[in-house]
Amino acid sequence: MQNSKDFLGKIVNVKVDKMLGSKHSEKYPNHIYPVNYGYVPNTISGDGKELDCYILGVYEPVIEFSGRCIAIIHRFSEDDDKLIIVPDGRNFTNKEIRVLTEFQERFFESIIIREDGYLEFSKNIPELSVTNLEKSLDFYKTMGFKIEYERPENKFAFISLDEIQFMLQEIADDDKWDVAPLSYPFGNGINFQLEVENLDEIYSNLKNNNYRIAFDIEENWYRQGDKLLGNKEFLVQDPDGYLIRISQDLGQKNA
């Protein structure tokens, strides 16, 4: 069986058997392909067939295509992989890949695999000035954050938890960002709401590591028009006093 990861970052030649605009089959005539879909000849995927490919960024039907593999959709239920092939020099975010392949992938549970070191940057990334980078990293790792990259010589780290991203920078004497003296608690007047799916696990990890919870777990409902949006949430302060609101969605109901 072909190792799909061998194709990541490489130019791949694809034979197209489902052109953009074609129907899936006579059995499913309403299942129309909004992208070109094909396979890599002389390969074997987890389903015993040739390795399938979605071709993104090509807006007309083609019968063959040569492009770069930027990602892999791995289906858990079938142990099957689909390569994401694009014109060389193009890129698509994971969210864009999900949208463009949703017509078919919505029926399967899957993950998107990228090249090692791949990182999608959020549009808004807070950078926190901290007094001790090591202590701050211990705190955020307890919540489940991981270090994406760091510059030890600058005492800087870029951390993430799913789609949540922070930059941490230890304060230096010549820090150009300091526009006024800092005193504890840092960030007074602001809190960072982090939406997660495992609030109880994060809460337990923080308590077990003796981090002080500022406000305990509670359910809150906030009105938006004629709807109430629910959150299960708690507040914790990081080592410098930045207020972190851990929140888990509870859905909505009528006001």
Explained architecture:
The mean pLDDT is 92. This protein is mostly beta strands. The N and C termini lie far apart (55 Å). It has 2 domains: 110 residues, Inorganic pyrophosphatase (Inorganic Pyrophosphatase), CATH 3.90.80.10; 128 residues, 2,3-Dihydroxybiphenyl 1,2-Dioxygenase, domain 1, CATH 3.10.180. The radius of gyration is 23 Å and the shape is elongated. It has 3 helices and 14 strands. 22% of the residues are buried.
Shape: elongated
Report the radius of gyration as a whole number of Å.
Answer: 23 Å
CATH H-level name of the largest domain... which superfamily?
2,3-Dihydroxybiphenyl 1,2-Dioxygenase, domain 1
Uncertain segments are none
| Helix content bin | 10-25%
Order of helices and strands: EEEEEHEEHEEEEHEEE
Task: Classify the beta-strand content into a percent band.
Answer: 35-45%
What is the count of helical runs?
Answer: 3
Q: On the 0-100 scale, what is the average pLDDT?
A: 92
* Reported CATH architecture of the largest domain: Roll
Distance between the termini: 55 Å
The CATH class label of the largest domain is: Alpha Beta
Main β-sheet, spatial strand arrangement:
1-2-3-5-4
The CATH topology assignment of the largest domain is 2,3-Dihydroxybiphenyl 1,2-Dioxygenase, domain 1
SSE class = mainly beta
